[in-house]
Amino acid sequence: MFKALAVLRCIGEADRPLTLGDVCRRAELPKSTAFKYLRTLRDSGFVAHDPDTDTYRIGLLVWQLGQLSGEQNRIREVALPAMRRLHERFDETINLGLPDGREIVYLEMIESSRALRMQARLGSRDPLYSTALGKAYLSALDEDDWRNLVPGRLTPRTDHTVTALAALRSELDQARARGYATEIEENEEGSSCVAAAIHDVRGVPVAAISVSAPDRRMNAELRAEIGKHVAAAAADCSQRLGYRGAR
Question: What are the pLDDT digits (tens) for 29-82?
């Protein structure tokens, strides 16, 4: 147990993702031992592994089990009032998502009181490229950065998932221009979602807020209206985190 905690601590204290060799040196463990603990920590969600770079970083579960400490708790506190306002206006499911590697994690959620709710649940994960939350986050990054967060092969989640990189790039350009991203049955059959990114005081995108609903309740006109309100809500959250807009 002590050795596993030593591995977790050295990853948590690092200012960058670590390779297996890095972990061995920092934790002073043999390669086979370090790998065994890394695999256990990865499988349990305490450590996240990037297969492309073969590096390890702290997983989202660490702070989830710490009951949302630090920056994540601040984001949640700031976003909840805006989420409640969106819920009161549209009575659809409101989501707060946090990026974790190539996935978006549902950090907070206010469910619709109406029938036909969404399948996503608090703490669940979805790919960045197939969700409005994820695409809103990606659209706030430079291409060199967002390309590292998208797999070389975009696996379809539904028959409507965008699987061509050029098409995804076009969607991100549109999201950047209008201030919000959309997703129509790309992650879940029969559902639509509209989302906008939240920035911190440094101007770095740290989360996204969205409104999701069954596709039959969200036509193009309503998506545009929701988009304006979601973008305004995200901008308010960003301002409360200290963001003052592009410099």
Answer: 998 988 988 888 888 778 888 887 889 887 766 655 554 556 777 898 899 999
- Note whether 185 and 223 are within 8 A (CB): no
One-letter amino acid of 130: S
39-43: Cβ within 8 A, 24+ apart: 40/4, 41/4, 41/7, 41/8
- pLDDT 10s digits, 152-203: 899 999 999 999 999 999 999 999 999 999 999 999 888 999 999 999 998 9
The C-alpha angle with vertex 238 and arms to 237 and 243, in degrees rounded to 5, equals 150
Contacts of 155 (CB under 8 A, 6+ apart): 127, 161, 163
Q: Buried b / exposed e across 132-147, counting CB within 10 Å, b at 16+?
A: bbbbbbbbbbeeeebe
Between the CA of residue 198 and those of 59, 98, 138, what are the distances in Å?
21, 10, 11
Rounded CA-CA distance 73/54 in Å is 29
Q: For residue 128, with 0-12 CB atoms within 10 Å meaning exposed, 13-18 middle and 19 or more buried, which class applies?
A: buried
**Contacts of residue 183, Cβ cutoff 8 Å, sequence gap at least 6:** 130, 131, 132, 135, 192, 193, 194, 195
